[in-house]
Design brief:
The complex is a heterodimer of chains A (386) and B (219). With 386 residues, chain A is α/β, with parallel strands linked by helices. Chain A is 43% helix and 9% strand. In chain A, strand 5 and strand 6 form a beta hairpin. In chain B, 28% of the residues are buried. The chains are: A alpha/beta (386), B mainly alpha (219).
Chain lengths: 386, 219
């Protein structure tokens, strides 16, 4: 590995910021590379991970050694993870993704200073850890948030007596960037679903002065979370985002466009029920309500459970969980081309009402015609000569 | 309003508004025409009104030779985009699902590449018709603002549908919502414009045929 200073010159813009993340930790702090080696990860498999990450994020192969170097020399960035109105599914997704993948080791290698599900400390001791991490790394720590924030009443969700809103605002102040993980933190998610009893909002709804990376999904794909972390560790910047704050590399294409069942859609071969011939033959699930055409996520390419499969592959239509308001999208099993309201009823009532109105208008016209006919008098030559 | 909310609105409330205006408008207009009735013909019937009427409804679909010679372009391009509209509206799988949801029954679809191709052909035919209309002095003179509006409302769902299918420029939920909205504009304008010809052409042809049938002559 070349000297870091020499290599730095070749790194893209924005790296100046990551200087702060990589250095300035205690002398006894292990680098990420050292941590991985002590966990028994060979250099070969580490580079494979770097190559996979580079290709996943559509970078040139020339970037692989740079990613490797940046990751190896990264000194455990401080990460504060706040969980608000959530179900812990996002944490489960990341931590139980697969046995000892490098992704999970990267995750283990960050200095996760506060995560109330995973940390041993509880109550005020836990809050002290958060405050200490904030103070030590002010302006440099990464803030990860899962769960939505209730604005309806601060008492709806509190941690150690602190409302979610207050904790987020306080912790966000010193964050270098915020990663909103899961659809609740990114777009309000299930707590935000109609009628939104808690007045749930997303991180982006209330924080406007910090870079926010939205990593939606219910839960998000683990490799997407670590991919975003890797990007931040490598470049010290946030990846290119789409119009709703999602990294384009992972959320740039619709499930439909990448779906292996797409040829069946184009041929007009659909599963009509969950156990018909079409379902057994693996035909398109559009008619069963698949939201693939309107959903942007990496499921169809990176897949789940170490690349085993994704929902459509196991025979279930996509729910569209990485899109805002997916819970209120008109029903999971209703195809997106179908109306969400009962149009049949609307049509019948309208037809009945219109028929009555038509008859009434017709009767009016007829009487007008009849009275005009009755009032009709013949014009004679005498009349014209008047 | 998020894009999914926009899509939900056009699939829900927007859809209802459009359907109410469309159905009420069409029924009231047809009801008015039918209930107005016709003057009693005092002449002795020399043939059947029904026979002549029904025959004419069908036969008028084929232009006679001299008419075809005079406006071959209009007729051919007109046929192309009408067939294109029929296939894209009624034989595209996602559309059939929509009809099935409302009517309770569906029918087989054609493969999407065929629908895709016919969409492009229809768009070209409609564009050619507009150009032809604007270049011809007589046609341009008799064309009203309403005619241009109807043309626009007809081509919009084709263009927005094509863009939504291929996801060009914007994200899928927004494109789909815009497509559905463009169809709703068409449905709302339908009863109050020349678009009503889709229904009234049957009545008009039947009346023409019936008049001739009553007199015992060919229409």
């Amino acid at each position: 590995m070349t000297d870091r200073k020499n290599n730095k010159d070749k790194l893209p813009a924005g790296l100046d910021q990551h200087e702060g993340i990589h250095s300035e930790s205690g002398p006894f702090e292990k680098t990420l590379g050292e941590t991985l080696r002590s966990q028994g990860i060979s250099r070969r498999s580490f580079l494979k991970f770097c190559a996979a990450t580079a290709s996943m994020m559509a970078m040139s192969p020339a970037m692989i050694p740079k990613i490797a170097h940046a990751l190896e020399s990264a000194r455990r960035p401080s990460v504060i993870w706040l969980s608000f109105q959530e179900c812990t599914g996002c944490t489960e997704s990341l931590t139980r993704a697969h046995a000892s993948t490098i992704e999970s080791l990267i995750f283990d290698s960050i200095s996760l200073d506060y995560h109330h599900t995973l940390q041993a400390a509880a109550g005020h001791a836990a809050e002290e850890a958060r405050e200490a991490a904030m103070e030590e790394n002010f302006g440099k720590y990464l803030l990860v948030v899962d769960g939505s924030i209730p604005l309806g009443n601060p008492g709806y969700s509190t941690i150690a007596g602190i409302s979610n809103y207050d904790m987020l605002m306080e912790t966000a102040k010193g964050a270098a960037a915020i990663i909103a993980v899961g659809t609740c933190a990114t777009y309000g998610g299930i707590p935000h679903a109609d009628p939104n009893p808690t007045g749930a909002v997303s991180v982006g709804d209330i924080i406007k002065d910090k870079p926010i990376i939205n990593v939606p999904g219910c839960p998000p794909i683990p490799v997407v979370i670590t991919g975003v972390l890797t990007h931040f560790l490598t470049f010290g910047t946030i990846p290119e985002l789409d119009h709703i704050g999602r990294p384009k590399v992972f959320y740039g294409q619709s499930i439909h466009d990448r779906c292996y069942r797409r040829p069946f859609y184009d041929k007009g071969l659909f599963a009509e029920t969950f156990d018909d011939e079409g379902a057994r033959k693996g035909w398109c699930l559009y008619k069963l309500g698949c939201k693939g055409p309107t959903t942007y996520n990496a499921c169809a390419t990176t897949k789940w459970n170490n690349g085993t499969s994704f929902p459509i592959e196991s025979g279930h239509p996509c729910l569209g969980c990485s899109e805002p308001d997916f819970w209120d999208g008109g029903g999971f099993y209703k195809s997106i081309s179908m109306p969400t309201e009962n149009i049949t009823k609307t049509a019948i009532y309208t037809a009945a009402g219109a028929a009555a109105a038509g008859v009434a208008l017709g009767a009016m016209n007829r009487s007008k015609k009849n009275s005009a006919a009755a009032a009709h008098s013949k014009t004679t030559i005498d009349d014209l000569e008047k | 309003m998020s894009e999914i909310e926009f899509l939900s609105w056009v699939r829900g409330t927007g859809f209802q508004i459009a359907v109410i205006i469309f159905i009420a408008g069409v029924i009231i207009r047809l009801g008015e025409i039918l209930l107005l009735g016709r003057k009693t013909n005092l002449a002795e019937a020399k043939g059947s009104e029904m026979g002549g009427g029904l025959r004419t409804v069908v036969t008028r679909s084929v232009p006679d030779k001299s008419t075809f010679k005079r406006s071959a372009f209009t007729i051919v391009a007109g046929y192309i985009f009408h067939i294109g509209l029929f296939v894209t509206i009624f034989l595209f799988a996602p559309h059939i699902l929509m009809f099935k949801d409302i009517l309770g029954f569906g029918w087989p679809s054609v493969p999407t590449p065929i629908v895709d191709a016919l969409t492009v052909v229809s768009i070209i035919a409609l564009l050619a018709i507009l150009v032809h209309r604007m270049r011809d002095n007589v046609l341009r003179f008799i064309t009203t603002t309403e005619d241009y509006l109807v043309w626009l409302l007809t081509i919009l769902p084709l263009i927005t549908g094509y863009i939504a299918f291929h996801r060009i420029g914007m994200t899928a939920p927004t494109l789909l919502a815009i497509h559905i909205l463009s169809v709703q504009l068409l449905l709302i304008a339908f009863p109050f414009t020349k678009l009503m010809h889709a229904f009234t052409l049957v009545l008009a042809r039947w009346y023409n045929g019936a008049i001739s049938g009553y007199r015992g002559v060919e229409s």
